[in-house]
Design a protein that fits this description.
The protein is of the alpha+beta class and about 250 residues long. The protein has one domain. Helices cover about 35% and strands about 20% of the residues. It has a 3-stranded antiparallel sheet with strand order 1-9-8, with helices on one face. Strand 12 and strand 13 form a beta hairpin. The chain starts with 5 loop residues before the first strand and ends with a helix.
Length: about 250
Protein backbone atom coordinates (compact mmCIF):
# COMPACT_ATOMS: atom_id res chain seq x y z
CA UNK A 1 0.00 0.00 0.00
CA UNK A 2 1.42 3.41 -0.97
CA UNK A 3 0.93 4.93 2.46
CA UNK A 4 2.45 2.59 5.04
CA UNK A 5 0.40 4.16 7.84
CA UNK A 6 -2.82 2.97 6.16
CA UNK A 7 -3.14 -0.63 7.32
CA UNK A 8 -5.75 -3.35 7.27
CA UNK A 9 -7.20 -3.37 10.77
CA UNK A 10 -6.66 -6.56 12.74
CA UNK A 11 -6.41 -7.57 16.39
CA UNK A 12 -2.91 -9.02 16.03
CA UNK A 13 -1.29 -5.75 14.96
CA UNK A 14 -3.64 -3.18 16.46
CA UNK A 15 -4.78 -4.60 19.81
CA UNK A 16 -3.18 -1.77 21.87
CA UNK A 17 -4.58 1.07 19.79
CA UNK A 18 -7.14 3.54 21.01
CA UNK A 19 -9.07 6.29 19.22
CA UNK A 20 -9.79 9.69 20.72
CA UNK A 21 -13.39 10.76 20.16
CA UNK A 22 -12.94 14.48 20.85
CA UNK A 23 -12.74 16.98 18.02
CA UNK A 24 -10.18 19.70 17.41
CA UNK A 25 -7.83 21.28 14.92
CA UNK A 26 -4.95 19.37 16.50
CA UNK A 27 -6.93 16.15 16.00
CA UNK A 28 -7.24 16.57 12.24
CA UNK A 29 -10.62 18.30 12.19
CA UNK A 30 -9.40 21.68 10.96
CA UNK A 31 -11.07 21.43 7.56
CA UNK A 32 -13.13 23.97 5.63
CA UNK A 33 -15.59 21.43 4.27
CA UNK A 34 -16.53 17.77 4.64
CA UNK A 35 -17.60 15.44 1.85
CA UNK A 36 -21.24 14.39 2.15
CA UNK A 37 -23.77 12.45 0.09
CA UNK A 38 -27.51 12.73 -0.71
CA UNK A 39 -28.68 10.12 1.81
CA UNK A 40 -27.16 12.34 4.51
CA UNK A 41 -28.53 15.64 3.19
CA UNK A 42 -31.54 15.69 5.51
CA UNK A 43 -29.24 15.90 8.54
CA UNK A 44 -26.59 18.03 6.85
CA UNK A 45 -28.97 20.74 5.66
CA UNK A 46 -30.16 21.27 9.22
CA UNK A 47 -26.69 22.52 10.19
CA UNK A 48 -24.54 23.36 7.16
CA UNK A 49 -24.75 24.80 3.64
CA UNK A 50 -24.50 22.06 1.01
CA UNK A 51 -22.27 23.05 -1.89
CA UNK A 52 -20.42 21.14 -4.59
CA UNK A 53 -16.70 20.94 -5.24
CA UNK A 54 -14.70 19.75 -8.24
CA UNK A 55 -11.67 17.49 -8.00
CA UNK A 56 -8.88 19.33 -9.81
CA UNK A 57 -7.22 16.04 -10.80
CA UNK A 58 -10.17 14.01 -12.05
CA UNK A 59 -12.74 16.71 -12.81
CA UNK A 60 -15.32 14.81 -10.76
CA UNK A 61 -17.90 16.76 -8.75
CA UNK A 62 -18.94 15.87 -5.21
CA UNK A 63 -21.21 17.45 -2.56
CA UNK A 64 -19.73 19.01 0.57
CA UNK A 65 -20.90 20.46 3.86
CA UNK A 66 -19.37 23.91 4.32
CA UNK A 67 -17.62 24.29 7.68
CA UNK A 68 -15.62 27.50 7.30
CA UNK A 69 -14.50 30.32 5.04
CA UNK A 70 -10.98 28.94 4.44
CA UNK A 71 -9.62 25.47 3.55
CA UNK A 72 -8.30 24.81 7.08
CA UNK A 73 -10.96 26.67 9.06
CA UNK A 74 -13.66 24.74 10.92
CA UNK A 75 -15.92 27.21 12.68
CA UNK A 76 -17.79 24.46 14.53
CA UNK A 77 -14.87 23.44 16.75
CA UNK A 78 -14.60 24.61 20.34
CA UNK A 79 -12.47 23.11 23.12
CA UNK A 80 -12.71 19.48 22.05
CA UNK A 81 -16.36 19.64 21.02
CA UNK A 82 -18.20 20.07 17.73
CA UNK A 83 -20.87 22.74 18.05
CA UNK A 84 -23.63 21.35 15.85
CA UNK A 85 -26.44 18.86 16.37
CA UNK A 86 -25.10 16.67 13.56
CA UNK A 87 -21.51 15.86 12.57
CA UNK A 88 -20.88 14.73 8.96
CA UNK A 89 -20.30 10.98 8.66
CA UNK A 90 -17.04 11.43 6.75
CA UNK A 91 -15.70 13.36 9.76
CA UNK A 92 -16.92 10.84 12.32
CA UNK A 93 -15.31 7.92 10.48
CA UNK A 94 -11.73 9.09 11.17
CA UNK A 95 -9.24 7.42 11.51
CA UNK A 96 -10.90 4.55 9.65
CA UNK A 97 -11.34 3.86 5.95
CA UNK A 98 -13.00 1.06 4.04
CA UNK A 99 -11.69 -0.87 1.05
CA UNK A 100 -11.74 -4.17 -0.82
CA UNK A 101 -9.18 -6.77 0.27
CA UNK A 102 -5.65 -5.91 -0.89
CA UNK A 103 -5.32 -9.10 -2.88
CA UNK A 104 -8.62 -8.65 -4.71
CA UNK A 105 -9.73 -5.13 -5.55
CA UNK A 106 -12.77 -6.43 -7.40
CA UNK A 107 -14.12 -8.17 -4.31
CA UNK A 108 -17.42 -7.01 -2.85
CA UNK A 109 -16.21 -7.99 0.63
CA UNK A 110 -15.14 -4.77 2.32
CA UNK A 111 -12.43 -4.51 4.94
CA UNK A 112 -11.68 -1.84 7.53
CA UNK A 113 -8.46 0.11 7.24
CA UNK A 114 -6.91 2.36 9.89
CA UNK A 115 -4.56 5.30 9.51
CA UNK A 116 -2.13 4.64 12.34
CA UNK A 117 -0.55 8.06 11.82
CA UNK A 118 -3.82 9.91 12.38
CA UNK A 119 -3.68 12.26 15.39
CA UNK A 120 -6.69 10.55 16.99
CA UNK A 121 -4.82 7.23 17.16
CA UNK A 122 -2.66 6.39 20.17
CA UNK A 123 -2.08 3.69 22.77
CA UNK A 124 -2.86 5.74 25.88
CA UNK A 125 -6.30 7.34 25.79
CA UNK A 126 -9.56 6.96 23.94
CA UNK A 127 -11.76 4.06 22.84
CA UNK A 128 -10.27 0.57 22.53
CA UNK A 129 -10.80 -1.24 19.22
CA UNK A 130 -10.48 -4.79 20.52
CA UNK A 131 -11.15 -6.39 23.87
CA UNK A 132 -8.76 -8.74 25.69
CA UNK A 133 -9.96 -11.69 23.59
CA UNK A 134 -9.35 -9.89 20.30
CA UNK A 135 -13.04 -9.35 19.60
CA UNK A 136 -14.28 -6.04 18.22
CA UNK A 137 -15.46 -3.58 20.86
CA UNK A 138 -18.89 -1.91 20.51
CA UNK A 139 -17.02 1.25 19.46
CA UNK A 140 -15.36 -0.55 16.53
CA UNK A 141 -18.62 -2.26 15.54
CA UNK A 142 -20.31 1.14 15.38
CA UNK A 143 -17.41 2.47 13.28
CA UNK A 144 -17.76 -0.47 10.88
CA UNK A 145 -21.48 0.22 10.48
CA UNK A 146 -20.74 3.88 9.78
CA UNK A 147 -18.14 2.95 7.15
CA UNK A 148 -20.62 0.72 5.36
CA UNK A 149 -23.17 3.53 5.41
CA UNK A 150 -20.60 5.92 3.91
CA UNK A 151 -19.58 3.38 1.26
CA UNK A 152 -23.19 3.00 0.12
CA UNK A 153 -23.83 6.74 0.37
CA UNK A 154 -20.85 7.70 -1.78
CA UNK A 155 -21.82 5.14 -4.42
CA UNK A 156 -25.32 6.65 -4.56
CA UNK A 157 -23.76 10.11 -4.66
CA UNK A 158 -21.95 9.33 -7.91
CA UNK A 159 -25.29 8.55 -9.55
CA UNK A 160 -26.71 11.78 -8.11
CA UNK A 161 -23.86 13.85 -9.55
CA UNK A 162 -24.25 12.18 -12.94
CA UNK A 163 -27.93 13.15 -12.96
CA UNK A 164 -27.18 16.76 -11.98
CA UNK A 165 -24.62 17.12 -14.76
CA UNK A 166 -26.86 15.41 -17.30
CA UNK A 167 -29.56 18.02 -16.73
CA UNK A 168 -27.22 21.03 -16.31
CA UNK A 169 -28.19 21.46 -12.67
CA UNK A 170 -24.81 22.66 -11.42
CA UNK A 171 -23.46 26.17 -11.80
CA UNK A 172 -20.48 28.08 -10.37
CA UNK A 173 -21.43 30.08 -7.31
CA UNK A 174 -19.81 33.06 -5.62
CA UNK A 175 -20.69 33.77 -2.00
CA UNK A 176 -19.75 37.24 -0.79
CA UNK A 177 -20.41 38.92 2.55
CA UNK A 178 -18.99 41.56 4.86
CA UNK A 179 -17.98 40.63 8.40
CA UNK A 180 -18.53 42.71 11.53
CA UNK A 181 -14.95 44.01 11.43
CA UNK A 182 -15.52 45.37 7.92
CA UNK A 183 -13.56 42.64 6.14
CA UNK A 184 -14.99 41.34 2.88
CA UNK A 185 -15.18 37.58 2.50
CA UNK A 186 -15.73 35.70 -0.74
CA UNK A 187 -16.06 32.02 -1.56
CA UNK A 188 -15.81 31.35 -5.29
CA UNK A 189 -14.42 27.81 -5.60
CA UNK A 190 -17.75 26.03 -5.20
CA UNK A 191 -20.78 25.14 -7.30
CA UNK A 192 -24.45 25.21 -6.41
CA UNK A 193 -27.75 23.88 -7.74
CA UNK A 194 -28.86 25.85 -10.81
CA UNK A 195 -32.29 26.77 -9.47
CA UNK A 196 -33.66 28.34 -12.66
CA UNK A 197 -32.73 25.24 -14.62
CA UNK A 198 -34.28 23.03 -11.94
CA UNK A 199 -37.57 24.93 -12.21
CA UNK A 200 -37.58 24.45 -16.00
CA UNK A 201 -37.31 20.67 -15.97
CA UNK A 202 -40.11 18.73 -17.62
CA UNK A 203 -42.52 16.62 -15.63
CA UNK A 204 -40.96 13.45 -17.04
CA UNK A 205 -37.46 14.41 -15.91
CA UNK A 206 -38.73 15.51 -12.49
CA UNK A 207 -40.48 12.18 -12.08
CA UNK A 208 -37.31 10.31 -12.98
CA UNK A 209 -35.23 12.34 -10.56
CA UNK A 210 -37.82 11.81 -7.85
CA UNK A 211 -37.93 8.05 -8.36
CA UNK A 212 -34.15 7.89 -7.91
CA UNK A 213 -34.25 9.99 -4.76
CA UNK A 214 -32.41 12.86 -6.43
CA UNK A 215 -35.10 15.52 -6.57
CA UNK A 216 -35.52 15.81 -2.82
CA UNK A 217 -31.74 15.93 -2.43
CA UNK A 218 -31.48 18.78 -4.93
CA UNK A 219 -34.12 20.81 -3.09
CA UNK A 220 -32.44 20.10 0.24
CA UNK A 221 -29.20 21.49 -1.18
CA UNK A 222 -31.06 24.62 -2.27
CA UNK A 223 -32.74 25.01 1.13
CA UNK A 224 -29.46 24.49 2.97
CA UNK A 225 -28.09 27.76 1.62
CA UNK A 226 -29.98 29.52 4.43
CA UNK A 227 -27.34 27.96 6.71
CA UNK A 228 -24.80 30.43 5.35
CA UNK A 229 -26.03 32.65 8.18
CA UNK A 230 -24.66 30.05 10.59
CA UNK A 231 -21.22 30.30 8.97
CA UNK A 232 -21.26 34.10 8.99
CA UNK A 233 -22.41 34.31 12.61
CA UNK A 234 -19.73 31.82 13.70
CA UNK A 235 -17.06 33.81 11.85
CA UNK A 236 -18.20 37.03 13.50
CA UNK A 237 -18.08 35.34 16.92
CA UNK A 238 -14.54 34.22 16.17
CA UNK A 239 -13.56 37.77 15.24
CA UNK A 240 -15.15 39.10 18.43
CA UNK A 241 -13.38 36.51 20.59
CA UNK A 242 -9.99 37.31 19.05
CA UNK A 243 -10.42 41.08 19.26
CA UNK A 244 -8.25 42.76 21.95
CA UNK A 245 -10.19 44.15 24.91
CA UNK A 246 -11.07 47.82 24.64
Amino acid sequence: MANSSIQTLNATDHMPLRVVTDYGHQLGDGIGFAITYPIEFRDIQACYPILFSKDSNTGAFFPVALLGTQPDENLFLNNGTWNASYIPATVRRHPFLISSPEDDRTSTDLVILIDTAHPKVNAVEGQLLFDETGAQTPFLKDAAALLNQIHFGLSHSKEFMTALLEHDLLEPITISFTLDDGADCSLDQFYGIAEEQLFKLSGKVLEQLNQNGFLQAAYMAVASMSRLRTIIEAKNRQISDLAPPR
